[in-house]
Amino acid sequence: MKRNDCLGIINLDENESRMGELVRKRPLASVPVASRYRVIDFVLSNMTNSGIECIGIFTKNKSRSLMDHLTNGRPWDLHRKKNGLKVFNFGYEDPAYDDVHSFAENLAFVKYSKKEYIILAPAYMICNIDYNEVIDYHKKNSNDVTVIYKNVENADKEYLDCDILNIDSYKRLVSVGENIGKESTANVSMEMYVMKTALFNEIVHESIRSGMYRKIKQYVNANLDKLKVSTFKFDGYLSCINSLSSYYKTNMDFLKEEVSLELFNSERPIYTKPKDESPSKFTDDSDVKNSIIGNGCYIEGEVENSIISRRVRIGKGVKVKDCIIMQDAVIENDSELEKVIAEKGTVIGYEERYIGSKRWPIVMQKRNEL
Questions:
Q1: Could you give the CA distance from residue 349 to residue 333 in angstroms, rounded to a whole number?
Q2: How many CB atoms lie within 10 A of CB 194?
Q3: What are 148-159's pLDDT values in tens digits?
């Protein structure tokens, strides 16, 4: 279904300071998840599944891997002469602290799209959502801005540093705070906003003219008394990847049947860039339990509760448990890994042993990058 009245903007304004070495040479949006996907695939697929056919991605430096992954937008049916996928990565400001200037420099994209509404979303909120329901709710209630949120009961352990919404009985947004992990129950903002294109343009211009606001959400949060800002509750699975521990937990969640069935369903599939690989080979000595294995792998050892990406080689006598192994990694014979994140191309030598924890998983890199 085409959504001819809505423009999608994916704003890669995540604070990556707690992501460590995973974002040293790539943006968070292109970090691999669930063996064959990237973080950005979820929000991009959510938009295309909702019929949005004009999408702009506002990224930052270090975006080579992201550009390679997005190609021309074909995997998401966005390779078009008109509208389709546009990527803007030449801003001078860090979008984590300033996104209005990048938007201001590219307002022509918004103007020429000729869409009445905008849905603004980040990449690091992992979910499978139908934006049509949100946009219809926004129109029905004649809101200036609609903010999507999820009520969670584990805010003391997860979603740290995320925005917390204080909502009245009429679903109106009263104020916005920050999750410092003190309370377990909270309304976590998914940082997804629906508004009219005209209001978006006005916010950008006013923010720069006044010099008071450097981000769209700062303007919205500071003008709740002037705008009709309502909220839309999302009840599905949600994970926020804003730290190494949350990245690790999210990947482990994919191994749970209920999470996998919700996120990767046939009605709203998650698309990604295809890569032709030969099938993975499992020898008579291999033993694989509750794991996701990408194509092109050669498995001789034991793998349990792990995410294994494409073209990974696991030798004889190897024990891999609760790990995330990215593509082209090699784990040589008789090694043992537990709660380890192995970067692309990492080589684990003969009889090496590394054990991390859920909160502090060990991140391994190619030796020539250490």
A1: 8
A2: 24
A3: 999 999 999 999
